[in-house]
Amino acid sequence: MPLLTPFLHLTLPSPIVLASGIWGTSAALLARAAAAGCGAVTSKSAGPEPRRGHVNPTCIDWGAGLLNAIGLPNPGATHEVDILREAKAELAHTGAALIASFFADTVENFGRVAAILAQAQPDLLEANISCPNVHSEFGEPFAATAQSAAAVTRAVKQAVPHIPLIVKLAPDTPNIGRIAAAVVDAGADAICAINTMPGMLIDVESGQPILHNRRGGVSGPALFPIALRCVYEIHQAVPNTPIIGTGGVTTGKDAAAMLMAGATAVGVGSAIHYRGPDALTLIRDELAAWLDSHGHDSPAAIHALAHREPRYDLHPTPAPIPK
Amino acid sequence: MLPQAARIVETQRENANTRTFVFDAHWRARPGQFLMAWLPRFDEKPFSLVDDDPVTITVAAVGPFTRLLHRLEPGDRVWLRGPLGRGFRPEGQRMLLVGGGYGSAPLDFLARRAKNAAITAVIGARTAADLLFVERLARSGADVQVTTEDGSAGEKGLVTAVVEPLLARGGFDALYACGPHGMLAALEALARRHRVPAQLSWEAYMRCGLGLCGSCEHQGRVLCLEGPVLSFNNCSSRGRSFTRHV
Fold first, then answer.
1. What is the pLDDT of residues B102-144, one digit of tens each?
2. CATH number given to B94-243
3. CATH number of B4-84, picked from 3.30.470.20, 1.20.1560.10, 3.40.50.620, 2.40.30.10
4. Judged by CB atoms within 8 Å, which residues 211-230 of B form the interface with A?
5. CA-nearest residue of chain B to A65?
6. Are the Cβ atoms of A203 and B40 closer than 8 angstroms?
């Protein structure tokens, strides 16, 4: 079953995408993810300056999902260029695309960092405007309002007009479709949805938050229905914009559901914790088998299927009004 | 896995700046596996298991977290997550164990688990005062040889100076080592040259501990999940294939 996935100007070997923040710290790990079956791999978000990230604990498995606040550790954009160049060389024979993720503290710096990373000629740029774990330093994420999300998008498109831009959105907003429409209007070529959902865990023995950052982002199975809902709403708002649907995808059926919600490609991250390093291959192969067994000849065949509802002659009986 | 509060039941001094902590926790783990020890609102750090039942770690006071741990006493609480990672798998009847600096911490646990094997241990440190677990390994039945960089105990020099002739003489089924990266890289080269299977425990900065963040990447592997012990078998035709443990 061919899983070829047209995505903007690219044809990805599979719709599975290594999500940002997972393994993306080295060329060796990015190449390993590509070899494991990813059609595209996303590097760890780089910022204007080197950052150590937060003190441990930075990631916890709490039973129904993970909670993390790694705190965007990265070597800084200038050094990141070397990692991206090395990764691009190692990816060449796999056909997988390289997505360079980045963040910044100001709208202007988003453009500046994008211009630096563009030196490595990644296939796609991904503006991370939605990290939930750096509030104390950076304030509210740019993804929180349509205005700030669009401002970042415009700054990046102006700085690097020649590399397609993905904007990664946050789930904790009352109307994610409105934010998606604003960034597409500002020039975004694609959307990645979603980043993690802000949360907290408290150890009752000590009475203290477990993460050193106190708050973090929920990922894993707990995030999956939230991500599906967001992708569904974004597709409604911007039906012609490709979406990388990310959030709690752990199985091939999860990936199929994400495509049905309106995604063109499917991000995978925390599944590596739940199913081990083979998760990327397993999810790709399960998706292929599922499509095959249901008579679909490509991932595109089920794209946005959930938006095309069946029609019946009869109407369901409404529930009685309670007495 | 959430951190579980455990009480210290006993501490003992090992050398000038190293203390062992025994907890009221009882696990089933492999030597070479590790735990994350958390002090709420302070920090969380990885430590090799020195025993699993009761859970025991040996800690060198090298930074703020470990200095704070050293001030704790029996009855005090530390929050533990583990066992994590892949440990050593004792194989063969004649085992060569090599520890450098704090790297000898998991080796006595390994020696006690490899009950029926003949064990030679080479323990190296900067000075005699930095040597760790020499007596413990001897009590566990190992033939222990010591090296120090300043010659204040045993052979003067690095462990590799002792290991090279041992491997050249032959007779070891496998090499097991833990210590600084430079030492492990040198041992890896020696093991390849002498075609001895090796299991090497690589130290790394563990951040998420779940195999996701990539902070502990070494040779394309995430050590917190797929390590810290990486092993290779020189006797196979594929030279550079690391095999995975169960």
1. 999 999 999 999 988 999 999 999 999 999 999 999 999 999 9
2. 3.40.50.80
3. 2.40.30.10
4. 211-215, 217, 219-220, 222, 225-226
5. B1
6. yes
3-state secondary structure of A219: strand
Token match 């914790």: residue? A273
Query: What is the span of the domain harbouring residue A149?
Result: 5-307
Smallest CA-to-CA distance from B198 within B163, B223, B165, B233 is with: B233
Beta bridge partners of B48: B34
Write down the ipTM of this complex: 0.89
Judge whether B153 and B128 are in contact, CB under 8 Å.
Answer: yes
User: Token match 């951190």: residue?
Assistant: B3
Nearest chain A residue to B81, by CA: A60
A56·B3 Cβ contact <8 A: no
Chain A residues whose beta carbon lies within 8 Å of the beta carbon of residue B3: 57, 60, 203, 210
CA distance A296 to A214: 45
A131 carries an active-site annotation: yes
CATH code of the domain in which A13 resides: 3.20.20.70
**pLDDT given at position B238:** 41
**CB spacing of A61 vs B41 below 8 angstroms:** no
Residue ranges of alpha helices (H) inside B103-153 are: 107-113, 134-139
What local confidence, expressed as pLDDT, does residue B184 receive?
96
Q: Which residues of A touch B218 (CB under 8 A)?
A: none
Asked if pLDDT for residue B235 goes beyond 70, the answer is no
